[in-house]
Amino acid sequence: MSAILFLIVIGIIVAAGFLLIFIWAVKSGQYDDSYSPSVRMLFDNEESIPDKEEPLKKKS
User: Fold this and answer.
1) In this predicted model, what pLDDT tens digit does every residue of 1-53 receive, in sequence order?
2) pTM above the 0.70 mark?
3) What is the 3-state secondary structure (H, E, C) of the chain?
4) Closest of 5, 49, 28, 58 to residue 20, by C-alpha
5) How far apart are CA 58 and CA 60, in angstroms?
């Protein structure tokens, strides 16, 4: 029984450690996206794709 309690306590300590490291990483900017803004102009806009229901206009 004491081994199960020991493992539960160790598991809670490890989980709390990972939670603290995750919170620190978020606050320090580790998950900020610095790549996408520089290549955003290369992506197509959603508005430029014509709807299937709307017929294409002919150039005159």
Assistant:
1) 899 999 999 999 999 999 999 999 999 988 887 777 777 777 776 665 555 65
2) no
3) CHHHHHHHHHHHHHHHHHHHHHHHHHHCCCCCCCCHHHHHHHCCCHHHCCCCCCCCCCCC
4) 28
5) 6
Cα–Cα distance, 18 to 24 (Å, whole number): 10
Contacting residues for 10 by C-beta, under 8 A, at least 6 apart: none
What would the two tokens of residue 20 be? 């603290």
The tokens for 21 are 């490291």
Chain length of the chain = 60
